[in-house]
Fold this sequence. Notes:
- The complex is a heterodimer of chains A (171) and B (352).
- Chain A is built from one helix and ten strands; from the N terminus they run H-E-E-E-E-E-E-E-E-E-E.
- Chain A has one helix spanning 25-35; strands at 40-43, 50-51, 57-58, 63-64, 67-70, 74-83, 96-103, 110-114, 127-132, 145-150.
- Chain A has a five-stranded antiparallel sheet with strand order 8-7-6-9-10, with no helix packed on it.
- Chain A is globular and about 80 Å long.
- Chain B has a domain at 4-117 and 206-224: Thiolase/Chalcone synthase (Peroxisomal Thiolase, Chain A, domain 1, 3-Layer(aba) Sandwich).
- Helices cover 33% and strands 20% of the residues of chain B.
- Chain B has twelve helices and twelve strands.
- Chains A and B meet through helix 1, strand 3 and strand 4 of A and helix 1 of B.
Amino acid sequence: MSDNEEMITDINVSIVHKYNFTAGASTTRFLFQLKKGVLTGQRCPSCSNVYCPPKGACASCGVATEDEVALSNKATIESFTIVAIPIPNNPIKPPFIVANLIPDGANISLTHLLSECVNEEVYKGQRVQAVWKPEQEWGHDMGNIRYYKPLDEPDVPLDMIGKLPVEGLGG
Amino acid sequence: MRDIAIVAYSQTDCVRSAGAANEVELIMPQLSAVFDQAGLSNSQDVDFVCSGSCDYLQGAAFAFVAGVDALGAVPPIKESHVEMDAAWALCESILKIRMGHADSALVYGFGLSSPGELPIVLSQQLDPYYLAPQWIDTISLAAMQARMMLDQGLITERDMAEVVARSRANALNNPHAQLAADVSVDNLLEQELFVSPLRKHDCSPISDGAGAMVIATVDQAKEWGKPYVLISGIDHCIETHNLGMRDLTDSVSTRKAAKMAGMANGKVDVAELYAPFSHQEIILTRALGLGDETSINPSGGVLAGNLMMTSGLSRIGEVFNRIISGEAQRGIAHATSGPCLQHNLVTVLEGV
């Protein structure tokens, strides 16, 4: 390379692929229910754990989860974090809370946002409820639930989190 | 060195589209099938698990990780993955067993090729600076290879059509085949050209599906008390990325892999060759020096159905099935990867 030539440090090659993405048979059923405003899970025939969102298999047992169950709009906080820095391309302004929530009737958590709360006063075992978008905006999308908000109900003891029936703590 | 055997094999049918099924839904029935065959309950009963797949095919990042949901990995298991055909996952598993780190292994592969444009997707496996940006698809490269062979008088279009006619006829006896028919060579030659000199039937179809296999040391296989087939040799060899530096009319790497795997140590009753294009079966047959005593692609080969990332394992499974059924005593299975037969693996299987 002669001295007056610049070194090539990068080339620009755009890669565009088109796909007809498939969510999977079980996730598809979940998304259709979600469009109707119903949160569903699937029960493992082996260990009886209910998963939401379901992926068609129990990851622990490695067996298909065919049994579909409707879950409550109420949930319990299993863990959470307060996001203090802006996430690129995320329209939500910090600080906001991302939480692992276990809907009543399910045994494994799903991740969603928490709002209408004092961030510093959120805790494990706290009861929360889904706030859905207006029905005309529902799609095949987890975003149908805008966020969860605190619910005025007795706390769930730590060793009971993830073990509540669909009827809730008293059920 | 510890002798290693195949104990079980199962695969899906080759279908043009698996519909809504995701990777877990595709894999799980095959895992159940091989566990049943081997008398095992789940992946906790084997020492090692290795899979082969490529997320580019279905356009879902980390699909190979999602696939682990099918395994029952609680408590944790020893698991690995190759971004290659599952035949190479078998290769890794064999090394694991030979090193004494495992006595048994589950190998599986899956491919959802229908969601994307497979020949274009595969262009991205080419050299990333000069070839991949040109989007040269696999069919065009194979067509160029076939053209070289025709021009040099190494094959005729009739030779290629004969490969296809035999594949379609053999596939009539293969319940997993996607394309099977009783067709004449003359009829095939009347079909219009697709990517010259290839006609559509010279190219393997696009297929979705999955396959799984259980292997173990011979001692372990005897303990399980199931019929088994010995893997007496396996090796692979790769050629340069630079197509211009290769002799595309020959497959030096296949010949070398076969030699290292010990193919010549006995009679070859059956050979399953992973030839995605008709002329490539001729290249492979010649490179391996296979003659009339060998039945070539009795399943119909991948021209009858091509489960990307599983077809190589499927070739091994086909030979396994034929030895178990007593149809053959000794056979070889070939797997390929990359454009124009760039990377080749040969497995030698023997009945006991």
